[in-house]
Design brief:
Shape: globular
Largest sheet: 7 strands, mixed
Strand content: over 45%
């Protein structure tokens, strides 16, 4: 039972990329999924979340209008599209699956670095 994030990389300000969170060992479609990030020297903060059916999404004010969370339950995957990236978006991005029963499942994180 795990989730694995991928897609992080080094890119310039203004760039875009898509992160993926793939689940194995359980059905991700039954979970509310959230993306979090932790910048160097700072605490972990929630960036966005999406409900099980994808009908509701919420975003942190700092990323609203630039990031989009989506899910493909058939692929057991949740995505985070990042655009208009800024240096302050540099962080390790984590995926968390909040299951209807059992503990939350966190991934190991993927590094996003925004630098010129």
């Amino acid at each position: 039972v795990q989730v694995v994030e991928s897609g992080g990389c080094l890119l310039q300000p203004g760039g875009s990329l898509r992160l993926a969170c793939v689940a194995s060992g359980f059905t991700l479609g039954s979970s509310v999924v959230s993306w979090h990030r932790q910048a160097p020297g700072k605490g972990r903060e929630v960036v966005a979340f999406i409900t099980t059916g994808g009908d509701r999404t919420e975003y942190a004010e700092s990323v609203k209008g630039r990031f989009t969370i989506s899910r493909n339950n058939a692929e057991n995957t949740v995505y985070l599209q990042l655009s208009s990236l800024k240096p302050e978006d540099t962080a390790v991005y984590y995926c968390k699956a909040s299951r209807p029963a059992g503990p939350d499942i966190w991934g190991q994180g993927t590094q996003v670095t925004v630098s010129s």
